[in-house]
Automatic annotation (TrEMBL):
It comes from Streptomyces chlorus. Pfam families: BON (PF04972), CBS (PF00571). Residues 145-213 form the BON domain. Residues 12-69, 91-147 form the CBS domain. This is CBS domain-containing protein. The keyword Lipid biosynthesis does not apply. Gene3D superfamilies: 3.30.1340.30, CBS-domain. The keyword Transferase does not apply. Keywords: CBS domain.
Length: 215
């Protein structure tokens, strides 16, 4: 699948650690730590996300440090957070969410715009279906050399260009595609190179292609 066609649904985690607003902070800390994650959604009784609680929220609370972005200020909200004993009292709200049918670039832009590291994913009913993190999106861009070679051989050379198997040898190392062999006519060389450059994960294309002489 080419990158622009991949969606949040393809890369999200659908088994999500969640908390209820009533979950005690001690339990929040223990579960975040045990699962080695930085944040988790807080859901209501229907399963709709109502906030996100993060390890840094908990840490600031435990150490009595103020919010570094200064968003809490010296107000009632900051006081209630300082007194927090539950996920609901400490969580960040409203919660920004993504949809499973979003493209990878759209989700990446939203993470950046909201200055968050993950987005809960909701369905049409507003209920939680998964979570997508910054590293999930990065993984979509980083593909193994074998995956890239397979797509170049099967999709570009085989399905799109209809070249006989073995006429062009494909080698991929660290995302750099090296092509060696023959194509039926000279004008196909830039076409092959352009198509390979469009394959997700390709860093560069090094083409050593000759046009087969017309018999």
């Amino acid at each position: 699948m080419m990158l622009y066609r991949r969606t949040v649904g393809d890369v999200m985690t659908d088994e999500v650690l969640t908390f209820r607003p009533t979950t005690p902070l001690q339990e929040v800390t223990a579960l975040l730590d045990a699962n080695d994650i930085v944040a988790a959604p807080v859901i209501d009784e229907d399963g709709a996300p109502v906030g996100v609680v993060s390890a840094s929220d908990v840490l600031r609370h435990e150490t009595g440090m103020p919010d570094p972005q200064g968003q809490d200020g010296n107000d009632e909200h900051a006081w209630s957070k300082a007194q927090a004993r539950t996920a609901g009292a400490l969580m960040s709200s409203p919660v920004f969410t993504a949809r499973a049918d979003w493209t990878i670039p759209r989700a990446a832009r939203e993470l950046r715009r909201r200055h968050v590291k993950q987005l809960p994913v909701v369905g049409d009913d507003g209920l939680l279906t998964g979570i997508v993190t910054r590293s999930d999106l990065l993984d979509a861009f980083i593909r193994s050399d074998d995956e890239i070679r397979g797509e170049v051989e099967q999709d570009v050379l085989g399905r799109i260009l209809g070249l006989d198997e073995g006429t062009v040898a494909v080698e991929v190392r660290d995302g750099v595609v090296t092509l060696r062999g023959h194509v039926p006519e000279p004008r196909l060389v830039p076409v092959v190179v352009g198509l390979c450059q469009g394959v997700a994960g390709v860093v560069a294309v090094d083409a050593h292609l000759a046009a087969a002489r017309a018999g």
